[in-house]
Every structure is written in structure tokens, then in C-alpha cells.
């Protein structure tokens, strides 16, 4: 049994509870109430005075690199990194080697996760065979085997007819399509956002239209097919406007953005910082403001990390040769609190919705909620703690965080999943 004392519970922006004790028996919340009787001989007692307790988080877009790229990350190490950041459900993308484009690979991911992961790992299947963009994968079999979505993330399905057919099949099989929106004819050879910083550094720029053109195309295809389109890692103000328009039309579209897009601009690249090389690229302050407004209005539904680990040798090279991507599990909540709550006045309950309720709804899962009779999946956070992101404290195999050296506010201290304490006072126990 676990007894959490003096918990300030936050389930969502509309459903907050006053301070209470939480009694966990086995894997469920047995009781929530004032002054629950302590029994130190039978209970693990955690005093959360001055801290907040909220449902654990879900990430619908990450990369675990297994199979094929285990030197960057694997299911075990990636799951531990996610756990360190408060995530107990993560959805891994299919751009592995071989790609997750058939039912056997879906089965492998599920089996491997059950074997080595302390948390829930849900596979995303490919839209096309080999992520080639040329022939649809067997979407029905992929869904039947347990995929929660389909995506060619890392690559855009450039053929509009292939994408249209994918949406039609996805509707028949009731599975969302997660779209990586990038017109590669416009972005080819690009390194960073096309603009001031690309001009002064001499790095080839990626025009913002590379994203927004495909966003517009896929919205129109979703409008026609009535399928569920999810647009991932939104980075431009134009994309926000297009998604808002689509929702006003009644299109079945949802969207996410990532912590680095709502906090950092293209200027992070100055000095040729390869950790700031991500895809889509970091944009401008104007884009950040549009994304934040989109989150406030509900145009952008949730936050994903796009956790993209790379080996140090893939980043410690000339900028144009460096791999794109940043790790994100361990800093996600703190970045959102620092840049949305502290700097932009968001309610802490809104962050819980962006990391729990909304992403789970998108992939068809019921939300984690702190309530009697529900599974005990929760995190304890210290909202006042300030900490610097340092390589030596990163749990992930890879250390390529764009937030290295940044000072963040709030810290996920303790994580409980299915009634088990997997992280306590900052230390993982799995």
C-alpha cells in the first residue's frame, strides 16, 4: 500500500481537487480523502506538502530506434527516459530498420516492450511499405495486431493519391493517420528555417511553405474522406491558421506541437549548434506566439515530444552533415511549465490536458485520472524547483537535447505506474 499525504490534485483545467490524501492498494486508487489513517508498518508514506499530484503523461510521437538503431536508443532505455519525464504511455514511430510496416513488426515491438519496458509502449505502424511513399502497407493487419495509428513520420507521403487512399483505409479501420507535413521538393537540402539566421550563417534554408502546403493538402483530403487526420509537430503560424480553418469546416483533424517549438527560435542555431537542428526547423518568435495562441484556443490539441535520440558522433559534425532531432522526454513537462505557465499564464490544469487527456483521446484511450477505483498512474511534481539541463543527468542513451544548459522551473520527482513506484525523489527504481 502507498499513502500519499497532503496531495494538491490536478486532473484537468475544469476538475481540480483540494488537498487530500490518496490511498493506493495494489494497482488502483482505493480512497481519496482527508486525514486517511497512517500505518507505517503496512504503507509506504509519501508526504507531498507544497507539491502537486497529477495523472501521468502520454506521448503520441516519439522514436525509440529499435530495431536497427540501438546505438542511439532502444525500447528499454527510451522507456526509462520517458518515465523520468513522467510519461507512462508512449507511442513509438515506425522509422526503424526494418520499418514497422507489417503485423510481424508490430508484434515484435509489443513483445519487446512487454519484456523490457517498465511502462506502456504502443507501436505506430507505417502508412507505406518501407516508408517509401509508393505502396500502402497492410493497414488492416497492422491495426489488428495492435498499432494505435499509422504514420510515415520522418518522411512525407508526397503522392497525394497514396495519401488519399491511406485516409480512406484508415477510416474503414478506425485508425488515425499521423501526418509528417513536409514538401520535400521545397525542403530538399535545407538545414534550418529560411530567414535571417539562414542568411547570416550561410546555411541553406527550409521555407515555411514546405510545411503549410502539405498541411493544406492533407486537410483537404481529410475533408473529402472524412478520416481522422492528425498533423504532428506543427511549427508555423500558417499551419495553425489552416488547422483552425479546418476545424471550423468540421474536418476531423487534430494536431500537436512540441516543447521546443513553443519555446525556442531559429537563433538557437547561431554558433552552429547541431542540437538545435531539428525537423521541422525551429522558427521565429512570431511562430512561437501563434503556436501558444493555438494551444490556448484548442486549435492545437496536445503536446508530443518527438523524442529523437542520436549518437554524439551524429551531432558532433559539420552542421550540414548532422542528424536532425532533439531528445525530449525528460524536459517536456518542465519546458511547458516554464514557457506556458510561468511566462504565458497558462493554468497548470491545461498542461495536464495537453499531456494526458487530449493525446489519449486522439488515439482512442480513456484518460488517466486520479479518482477512486481508477488505476494508480500519477506523478508528483515540485513546481518551484529550478534545475539546469546537464548531460550527466540525462537518462536517455543519447544526450542531444536542445535544452542543454537551459534553466527550467518544475521537476517530476516521483512517478507511480499501476500502483508501483518507478521513480521516487528523482531516482529511478527500474
What do you see in this structure?
With 430 residues, the protein is an alpha/beta fold. It folds into two domains: 2-53 and 374-386 and 405-428, Urease, subunit C, domain 1 (Roll), CATH 2.30.40.10; 55-363, Metal-dependent hydrolases (TIM Barrel, Alpha-Beta Barrel). The protein is built from twelve helices and 19 strands. It has helices at 75-84, 103-116, 139-145, 160-172, 184-187, 196-201, 209-225, 237-249, 285-297, 312-315, 332-344, 348-362, and strands at residues 2-9, 20-25, 28-33, 44-47, 52-55, 57-62, 87-92, 120-123, 150-151, 177-179, 192-193, 205-206, 229-231, 253-257, 302-303, 378-388, 407-417, 420-424, 427-428. The strands form four sheets. Strands 1, 2, 3, 4, 5, 16, 17, 18 and 19 form a nine-stranded mixed β-sheet that branches. A five-stranded parallel β-sheet has the order 9-10-13-14-15. A three-stranded parallel β-sheet has the order 6-7-8. α6 (196-201) links the parallel β11 (192-193) and β12 (205-206). The protein is globular and about 65 Å long. It starts with a strand and ends with a strand. The mean pLDDT is 97.
Amino acid at each position: 500500500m502507498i499513502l500519499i499525504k497532503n496531495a494538491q490534485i490536478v486532473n484537468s483545467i475544469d476538475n481540480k481537487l483540494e488537498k487530500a490524501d490518496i490511498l493506493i492498494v495494489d494497482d488502483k486508487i482505493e480512497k481519496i480523502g482527508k486525514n486517511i489513517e497512517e500505518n507505517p508498518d503496512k504503507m509506504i508514506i509519501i508526504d507531498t506538502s507544497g507539491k502537486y499530484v497529477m495523472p501521468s503523461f502520454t506521448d503520441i510521437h516519439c522514436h525509440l530506434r529499435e530495431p536497427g538503431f540501438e546505438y542511439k536508443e532502444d525500447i528499454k532505455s527510451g522507456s526509462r527516459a520517458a518515465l523520468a519525464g513522467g510519461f507512462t504511455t508512449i507511442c513509438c514511430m515506425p522509422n526503424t530498420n526494418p520499418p514497422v510496416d507489417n503485423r510481424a513488426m508490430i508484434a515484435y515491438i509489443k513483445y519487446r516492450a512487454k519484456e523490457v519496458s517498465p511502462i506502456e509502449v504502443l507501436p505506430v505502424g507505417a502508412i507505406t511499405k518501407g516508408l517509401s511513399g509508393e505502396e500502402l502497407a497492410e493497414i488492416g493487419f497492422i491495426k489488428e495486431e495492435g498499432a494505435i495509428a499509422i504514420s510515415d513520420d520522418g518522411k512525407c507521403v508526397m503522392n497525394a493519391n497514396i495519401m488519399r487512399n491511406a485516409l480512406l483505409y484508415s477510416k474503414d479501420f478506425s485508425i488515425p493517420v499521423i501526418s509528417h507535413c513536409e514538401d520535400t521538393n521545397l525542403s530538399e537540402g535545407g538545414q534550418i528555417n529560411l530567414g535571417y539566421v539562414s542568411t547570416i550563417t550561410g546555411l541553406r534554408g527550409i521555407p515555411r511553405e514546405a510545411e503549410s502546403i502539405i498541411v493544406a493538402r492533407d486537410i483537404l483530403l481529410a475533408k473529402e474522406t472524412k478520416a481522422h487526420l492528425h498533423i504532428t509537430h506543427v511549427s508555423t503560424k500558417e499551419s495553425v491558421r489552416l488547422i483552425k480553418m479546418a476545424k471550423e469546416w468540421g474536418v476531423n483533424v487534430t494536431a500537436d506541437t512540441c516543447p521546443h517549438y513553443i519555446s525556442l527560435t531559429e537563433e538557437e542555431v547561431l554558433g552552429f549548434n547541431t542540437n538545435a537542428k531539428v525537423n521541422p526547423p525551429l522558427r521565429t518568435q512570431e511562430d512561437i506566439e501563434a503556436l501558444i495562441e493555438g494551444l490556448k484556443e484548442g486549435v492545437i490539441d496536445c503536446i508530443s515530444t518527438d523524442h529523437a535520440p542520436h549518437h554524439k558522433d551524429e551531432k558532433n559534425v559539420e552542421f550540414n552533415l548532422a542528424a536532425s532531432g532533439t531528445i525530449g522526454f525528460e524536459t517536456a513537462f518542465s519546458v511547458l511549465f516554464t514557457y506556458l505557465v510561468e511566462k504565458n499564464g497558462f493554468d497548470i490544469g491545461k498542461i495536464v490536458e495537453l499531456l494526458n487527456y487530449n493525446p489519449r483521446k486522439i488515439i482512442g484511450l480513456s484518460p488517466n485520472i486520479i479518482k477512486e477505483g481508477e488505476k494508480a498512474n500519477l506523478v508528483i511534481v515540485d513546481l518551484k524547483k529550478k534545475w539546469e539541463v546537464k548531460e550527466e543527468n540525462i537518462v536517455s542513451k543519447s544526450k542531444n537535447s536542445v535544452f542543454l544548459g537551459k534553466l527550467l522551473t518544475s521537476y517530476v520527482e516521483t512517478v507511480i505506474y499501476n500502483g508501483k513506484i518507478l521513480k521516487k525523489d528523482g531516482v529511478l527504481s527500474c
